[in-house]
Amino acid sequence: MKHNEIDFATYFKNYPDEGGFFGKYGGVYVSEELKQAMEEITEAYFTICKSRKFISELRRIRREFQGRPTPISHLERLSGALGNVQFYVKREDLNHTGAHKLNHCMGEALLAKYMGKKKVIAETGAGQHGVALATAAAYFGLECDIYMGTVDIAKQAPNVARMKILGANVVEVTHGLATLKEAVDAAFEAYAKDYKDSIYCIGSVLGPHPFPMMVRDFQSVVGIEAREQFVGMTGELPDAVVACVGGGSNAAGMFAGFLNDPVDIYGVEPLGKGKALGDHAASLQYGEEGIMHGFNSIMLKDENGEPAPVYSIASGLDYPSSGPEHAFLHEIGRVTYDVASDEEAVDAFFKLSRLEGIIPAVESSHAVAYAMKLAKQMGKGSILINLSGRGDKDVDYIIEKYGIR
Ligand SMILES: *Cc1c(COP(=O)(O)O)cnc(C)c1O
């Protein structure tokens, strides 16, 4: 199937289908017991997302607690420095806790509350998802268990401290390589034992159905706001929209606002140090079809068919697969997926800081870097970039490794 065979006006009704599939990607590849838990969540979500009370409470939270709508900024100096293309950024860096992640964490925690659950459970790698979920749990008065590998706990001390201050219980995972993959497995195991009283809150558009759909829906506020704001500011649609893709939640939310428009859409994966397996995390670019963590998608595999080790300067992009919807949008050609390297991201990090007074997250810097490359090809027009988060968390590492540029 090609994208011109799909009616994007009704896309969100039809994708995913009842089984949680976007084409052949997605699904629910978990144990029978967890399948039941997923069905319970799906049912609750479909009921609740139509309820006035839930919708108005989520709206109020976004306005009064998160600080939404976040603005769009026109990057006048960067645009001037690169010729005739005008750059605009959607400022998710100004969302409470400094990134887009709270958009779905507040939704997931509100759902947990409506379902009568007492606890939220999740894994975290760099700690960003853990902090966002701990924030949501504190807001709603839910218990919060965050599974994290020993190696990551040592590397991410400030985020571990934040989670603890917010009242979360950080559970150390010591086995295997003691990083993200082991943390996911341990969190799933804990959830399987405790799914009656708790809910697993996935950190991106990943995992078994309904999570890729639910997280996209919660994030779509970004694209819906951005479209309205952009048209309000300029009187037209952007020519191109760009977002970075790790698991793909900030991108899925942004893209949701523009799939039915004559707008070119680009997802940017991390090329890290280069094309060799282990040096990057560009799964859609270099991966193949496979099942992991409960869903079918495109993933990077090692010689044994297991999830391959991945690398990126941006720990938020460091995952060996991407959400099933991205695999689908890639396959049908509606979204173009391409890459930006560590080096290009660091260059963009400094450019945006120097020229605009915005220090971007190193994840978001990948989208900025790609937009700058794209501008050269386009020559004129406008590009809207999703600035998924702020860079405060990255400054120490970048100064240590790259110095001031
Ligand atoms: C976690 C994170 C990402 C990557 O997650 P997606 O699900 O791919 O959006 C991107 N940017 C920032 C700032 C993050 O914290």
Beta-strand share of residues = 15-25%
CATH class of the largest domain: Alpha Beta
- Number of DSSP strand runs: 14
The CATH architecture of the largest domain can be given as 3-Layer(aba) Sandwich
Task: Give Rg in angstroms.
Answer: 20 Å
Mean of residue pLDDT values:
96
What general outline do the C-alpha atoms trace?
Answer: globular
The largest pleated sheet is described as: 6 strands, mixed
What percent of residues adopt helix (DSSP H or I)?
Answer: 40-55%
What is the domain tally? 2
Question: Which descriptors would you attach to this protein?
Answer:
405 residues, 2 domains, Rossmann fold, 16 helices, binds pyridoxal-5'-phosphate, six-stranded mixed sheet, 45% helix, four-stranded parallel sheet, alpha/beta, single chain, globular
What secondary-structure arrangement, pairings included, does this model have?
Layout: H1 11-14, E1 21-22, E2 25-26, H2 32-48, H3 52-66, E3 72-75, H4 76-81, E4 84-91, H5 101-114, E5 119-123, H6 128-140, E6 143-149, H7 150-155, H8 157-165, E7 169-173, H9 180-194, E8 198-200, H10 211-234, E9 240-244, H11 249-256, E10 264-272, H12 283-286, E11 288-292, E12 295-299, H13 324-332, E13 335-341, H14 342-356, H15 362-378, E14 380-387, H16 395-402
Parallel strand pairs: 4-14, 5-6, 5-8, 6-7, 9-10, 9-14, 10-13
Antiparallel strand pairs: 1-2, 3-4, 11-12
The structure holds pyridoxal-5'-phosphate (PLP).
Pyridoxal-5'-phosphate binds at residues 99, 101, 128, 204, 244-251, 316-317, 361, 363-364, 388-389.
